[in-house]
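Per reviewer request, we include the raw input and output of the structure prediction for the construct analysed in the revised manuscript.
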Amino acid sequence: MKKIAIIGAGPAGLTAAYELSKRNYQVDIFEAQDGVGGMSRTIMLWDCLVDIGPHRFFSSNRQINELWLEVAGDDYRMINRQTRIFYNNRFFHYPLKPFNAFKNLGLYETLRCIISYGQQKISPVPLNGDFESWVTRRFGKRLFFIFFKNYSEKLWGIKCTELDADFATQRIKRLSLYEAIKNSFSGDSGRHKTLVDQFAYPSGGTGMIYERMADHVRKRNGRIFFKTNVKRVIVHDNTATGLELEDGTVKNYDAIISTMPLTNLANTIDKVPSEVKESLSKLKFRNTILVYLLVDGQGLFTDQWLYIHSPELLVGRITNFRNWLPDLYGDSKKTILALELWCNSEDEIWNYPDEKLIEIATTDLKKTGLAGQKEVHEGFVYRVPRCYPVYSKGYMDALQPVQEYLSGIENLYPIGRYGAFKYNNQDHSILMGMLAARKIDGEKDIDLWEINTDYENYQESTIITETGLKDNH
């Protein structure tokens, strides 16, 4: 029986463990936290189940959907998605619906946006590889400034001229002002596959899927070691042979799957070439601080989450968990909101005491007016380090040498959002875990680095509905 080590118990790592355990591999999972799910974890807070931020599941890939349903069974509901932009004390549909946007902006600002868009059709800005030029050509300078600039700079901590256009091509892809107007007349939601009207949500929270995967792994004699950090991946003759844990324990394995941040993984390996170390220093991750607030009452707003574009607010996104599955609240008459702040590890705010962060979030919530005069009873802070790979302009020039170096190490498989340095959704990470297991099991032609983070290349188009899987033609 081959022994496989998996670093990290998030969606990618647990999916790989789940699939390998079905194939009778001996699996050991090493998780730094005290529970499974990673960013897709569900926790108990104030006698309610809440996720670590908003996580909706959607895929058009048959094999991903079949696996998800295999784990979820009938324990899920379809949620009607509503996520809007909150800007200048008004709600804007997302994706943008021109008539809603122009009504909220007013005649003067609308004319400015139309003129700005027209200028791009006549004399477009040159594409120079950054996010700002890519979006400006598709929406015009004025709409870029209102709906893209402030939010993107909050999230990434860099100017939009320093953010790579790859982020736009993965997350916005075919969307443009012309497409938005055309779709508003046709009633079509468009070809932007991530912006679905419904998504599947587990009845026990997002983390339920990964808790069930973990239970399955344990039943197949797999082991999960919580609060266990990996100090070093042991490599001999360009082959990964084992792990050294933080306490000095050394364990030998036939293969290692890593979902820890790519930069951390490479830096654990002895004798990394200097040019690779130089590339590693250029790859950055962004942190998230989630501030949960227990607010009096219900019906604060109808969205699952709101994108906060107002530049005067530090908060970038607000999730209202009551608008997912109210059943998870039980008899509570209160609402739990999660307000997100993004920062770097060296930023002062990352080390603020919880009380100060709760005060910042409460102040921002009051400024929005979303909670009216309702009282905030309690707060809770959850920090997620290194959760967003930063697509700074030209980042692929730094990433490629690292990929090539790690690809040259036999029996080592970096996957997941952190491990592959890709801005994955849940379904992409699940796919990476599935394919890593198949690669270990003998399918040599799988290139894990080539797994894309869009929805255009899936060969079999299916969707999950209330009654199960359905072909999407």
